[in-house]
Amino acid sequence: MPAPVNLEADRLSLGYGERTVVRDLSMALPTGKVTIIVGPNACGKSTFLSGLARLLPAASGAVLLDGKSIHATPSRDVALKLGILPQGPIAPDGITVTDLVSRGRHVHQGWFRRWSSGDDDAVTQALTATGTLSLAARPVDELSGGQRQRVWIAMALAQRTGILLLDEPTTYLDISHQVEVLDLLTDLNEAEGTTVVIVLHELNLAFRYADHLVVMKDGAVVTAGVPGEVLSESIIEDVFGMRCRLVNDPISDTPMIVPIGRHRIGEADRPE
């Protein structure tokens, strides 16, 4: 089981060239919990995640990994504590599932540390946990979208880090595979205590699976906390520009959005 890892943004600003996307954001991510980040397109969700993962340099402020600046920490030390699954990863042509998942173990190799039975075990356990063991010998580019996403998650699991960052891991998946992926990540969190941070578009699934929800708008955090405690219809309308009703999800007892459009609505919800 990986050791717990603390990750924190301290007055963090991020951007591209002269354009600032995330402004002066401070946040300590709850250790051992599932944090889900939501917000409208171009609000800074993926930029924030990239900054947390050290994929994007800070314009100002810092990201602290176990209390130390992540940019001052050796790359190998970062990779031993933090795994990242970016949006839309691309596998090399012809690579098999086993070979791709095995890449999650490369950070554990070194001048005097060669591939071991422990590495084999880590790969097998990651394949088993994601339900992809039967696919081990197949080329990744022959798999379905849902299968490929589970294989990429298996690679991240094989790395065995205390924190895992995922940018839109359910993009392009149908609803059954979206639930499957989020169930898998919740299983990982509950079994291993791994801190999981996910950028997600699907709001109702975010509300269902988040222990800690972060709602962003215009590069800043609007609210953060337990979904049932921090969400309101007015916040949804302000952030997403959408009138809605918040009701109770009958399956998970968490908030659920019912959008209000211009058609198919009752008299009580018609604009005056």
Task: Describe what you observe in this structure.
This protein is an alpha/beta fold and 272 residues long. It has one domain: Rossmann fold (3-Layer(aba) Sandwich). It has nine helices and twelve strands. It has a six-stranded mixed beta sheet with strand order 6-7-8-3-9-10, with helices on both faces. It has a four-stranded antiparallel beta sheet with strand order 2-1-4-5, with helices on one face. Strand 1 and strand 2 form a beta hairpin. Helix 4 runs antiparallel to helix 5 and helix 5 packs parallel to helix 6. The protein is globular and about 70 Å long.
Mean pLDDT: 91
Q: Helical segment tally?
A: 9
CATH superfamily: P-loop containing nucleotide triphosphate hydrolases
Low-confidence stretches: none
The quaternary structure here is: single chain
**Which band does the percent of strand residues land in?**
25-35%
Give the domain tally: 1
Spatially, the strands of the biggest sheet line up as 6-7-8-3-9-10
Radius of gyration: 20 Å
- Give the SSE order as H and E letters: EEEHEEHEHHHEHEHEEHHEE
Largest sheet: 6 strands, mixed
Please count the beta strands (DSSP E, at least 2 residues each): 12
The CATH topology annotation reads as Rossmann fold
Shape assignment: globular
Compute the separation of the termini in Å: 57 Å
Q: Considering DSSP H and I runs of 4 or more, what fraction of the residues is helical? A: 25-40%
The level-1 CATH class: Alpha Beta
